[in-house]
Amino acid sequence: MKDIIDFYSQLVIILFFYHIIFIELFAFWTLSQGLFLVLSAILGYFLHNRLSVRIVSFVNNWINLPLIFLVTYLQRGFEVSDAKIFLTSVIYNFLMFAIVLYLTREIEPFSRGSVLINSIFMNTINLPFSILLAFRGNYEISATVAVAMATLRLPIVMIIFTYLNKGISVIHNTTNNSIIRTNLSRYLPVITFLIGGSLHYVVGSVINVDIVNTINLILILIVLYEFGYQIRRVIGEMRIKDVTSKPYMIIYISRILISPILIFLILISLGITSKIIIEQVMVTAIMAPAITNVVWARVYGFGTEIIVKSTLILTPISTIIAIIFLILY
């Protein structure tokens, strides 16, 4: 009962703040979007309990993220550039896998799997979408990258698992049902991407760009609320003294240096020179590891501590680098 009362009290406070910002800053729409996004993360950091965590996690996994892709591609449809972005993502994932596999050759499998996962799989939705929405008002190319990465994530993780464990299962405290749920929730955005893009050519653009952007802003606000309390959780688990060891340094170098350079070279080699495409793909490439990587590590029996700590350290750093990139590019 206490959780329920706390949840509704927090909901009233959150809605009150959103109402104030919406009314006062509606005339300055770009500014208000940025403030909405920051406020959601702050509220998630300070205002949450067990019930709100469960509700928001469920809504984000099973409703919000799939709906973002559905409405975006229902309005947009498929484009020729999407095929090149998918190809870019495939090349990127396998080259990153090969590079990081070599860099981690002296690390034991339990930690090596975590380093591989966090070095390869960046945050492709909440942070890049939010940054691009605030600074460019559009993230449709980044959404295509997110779909491609989501499609490739499961097979790449399975390759990592099989290679490091030589086919021997090391999954701990995990049921078949939890694996199925995790995989299904990861693939829902891919499914709704295909449905939305296909329906675009059947029913046409039934919603305009402004409505799509407004819907997506509301959905991303909820995503960022979860991101805020995830940051609060990982801060409580962090010990600074361990985060300069070799596994962490490989993740830092992979995400901040190797990832953007590699993906830029792939884009250029495929003949992609559009400023809009390059900046949106590059922002995604710069991003820190996804917080949801901890779920994949847990499901496939790798350590979660490295993932949690390195994600916490890289998230503010990569956010600042991405913003500077957008300002200067």
Automatic annotation (TrEMBL):
Transmembrane segments: 7-23, 29-48, 55-73, 85-103, 115-135, 141-164, 184-203, 209-228, 249-270, 276-299, 306-328
Source organism superkingdom: Archaea
Keywords in alphabetical order: Membrane, Transmembrane, Transmembrane helix
Name of protein: Auxin Efflux Carrier
Species of origin: Saccharolobus islandicus (strain Y.N.15.51 / Yellowstone #2) (Sulfolobus islandicus)
Lineage: Archaea, Thermoproteota, Thermoprotei, Sulfolobales, Sulfolobaceae
